Amino acid sequence: MEYRCVKCGFRIKTLFVQYSPGNIRLMKCENCRAVADEYIECEIMILLIDLILHKPQAYRHLLYNVLNSETVNLQMLKDVVLGNVMFLGVFLHASRILLNTSAGASRFKDFLLAVLISSYFKIFLLAMMVWNFPSSVIYIIDLFVLSSNTVALKVITESAMNRILGVCLVAHAVKFFVVQGLELRYLRY
Ligand SMILES: [Zn+2]
Q1: How many structural domains is the chain composed of?
Q2: From ligand 1's centre to the CA of 13, what distance in Å?
Q3: Domain boundaries, position 133
Q4: Mind listing the pLDDT tens digit for each residue in 75-133?
Q5: 8-38, pLDDT tens digit by residue?
Q6: How many angstroms does the Cα of residue 114 sit away from the middle of ligand 1?
Q7: Ligand 1 centroid distance, CA of 132 (Å)
Q8: N-terminal to C-terminal alpha carbon distance within the chain
Q9: Do 85 and 27 fall into the same domain?
Q10: How close is the Cα of 11 to the center of ligand 1, in Å?
């Protein structure tokens, strides 16, 4: 498996040599002579900030040196996508029924925008795929997304709070059971 120098993108066999636990030496790039990937020793927040700042080095680190076909379970990615498609479908459908809103194209776009914007907490799930956090963090993130979706929907529809909470809970519950169902399937095979 090959890695890349985050500065110039040159291929490199290993990014660091480990002498003992916690004692590593970062490798230098043969092409540009810089440390190939200094993010290995950085805090997660520094990487996140550099990603937000659109620094190519941060993206090279994430795409080539962290997220590659060997470390990311592609089946998990498919489940995440499927779970989110189900969520969006149920969310839009339940919004229409429970909130008595018309299904016009512009209204649809409003809902889509609200749910996407208010799901920004999911960016932390990306961090979870890369670094090992306790799985309880997933539920905390889900709760934040749920409450954030609720506020966004309330602002857009100005409907009663219990109806909005109903829509969000139904959508999140469906997603939850879809994901749980898929995980059970793995246990069987
Ligand atoms: Zn280089």
Answers
A1: 2
A2: 12
A3: 74-188
A4: 666 766 777 788 888 877 777 776 665 555 666 777 777 777 777 776 676 666 666 66
A5: 999 999 999 988 887 889 999 999 999 999 9
A6: 41
A7: 28
A8: 28
A9: no
A10: 8
Same domain, 52 and 91: no
How many angstroms separate the alpha carbon of residue 48 from the centre of ligand 1? 21
Q: Which residue's structure tokens are 């890369």?
A: 130
For tokens 């995980």, the residue is: 183
Q: Are residues 89 and 168 in the same domain?
A: yes
Mean pLDDT of 48-70: 83
Report how far ligand 1's centroid is from the alpha carbon of 15 (Å): 11
Q: What is the largest CA-CA distance in the chain?
A: 64
Q: Rounded to the nearest whole angstrom, what is the distance from the C-alpha of residue 33 to the centroid of ligand 1?
A: 6
CA angle 11, 14, 17 (to 5 degrees): 150
18-57 in b/e form (b: 16+ CB < 10 A) is: eeeeeeeeebebeeeeebbbebbeeeeeebbebeeeeeeb
